[in-house]
Design a protein that fits this description.
about 230 residues, alpha+beta, Glutaredoxin, Glutathione S-transferase Yfyf (Class Pi), Chain A, domain 2, about 50% helix, Glutathione_S-Trfase_N, Glutathione-S-Trfase_C-like, Glutathione_S-Trfase, Glutathione S-transferase N-terminal domain-containing protein
Amino acid sequence: MFDIATHPISRRWPARHPDRIQLYSFPTPNGVKASIALEELGLPYEAHRVTLSDADVKSPEFLSLNPNNKIPAIIDPDGPDGAPLALFESGAILIYLAEKTGKLIGSTAADKAQVIQWLMFQMGGVGPMFGQLGFFWKFAGKEIEDPRPRDRYVAEAKRLLNVVETALDGRDWIAGDYSIADIALAPWLRSLDFYGAREVTGWADHPNAVAYLERFLNRPAVQKGLVTPPREG
């Protein structure tokens, strides 16, 4: 068992409210998963702004919490059996918070399996593929003359969008009821706008996905979570 006050992370990001869940994050599609879930679940938390710069995510303090140097990460002072729990990986955090509260993860074992299925679809497909699309379409990869990497990720993004479009036919949320699967998936759909890749992926040709993202963004907890912690400190 550890004490948040003596954990190395507290040397750089001290907790003012150590009795609350401590969130170390930044408003990226992965980062906002944790803040949105915390808002939706009504769990008291304290947000710490950890930028994507090496000075933050590769600092000894942050590496003591997440050796993979990625946001988000959390510390729950009231973890299993009342002991503090440190956790990284956005998908793992979503599952943990949902199971902690018994919310947003389905009401039956079959429901839970469906939620986790679509959560894994985002973690293994949409997130990595859309992230690579962003690299080759907007960031440094766009300078590469060989079109094959860019074309590969554009095509894969289109394929994944079609999967989402089909799955949403006749339903409001990806796994039936609103769940952590939506909290994982929708921010990545939103990222296509940030990457300037809506047109190239045919976003407007996916009316179910367009309406889905609009429903998601209209939720008050989502609106709060998208700007927590603030991008500018």
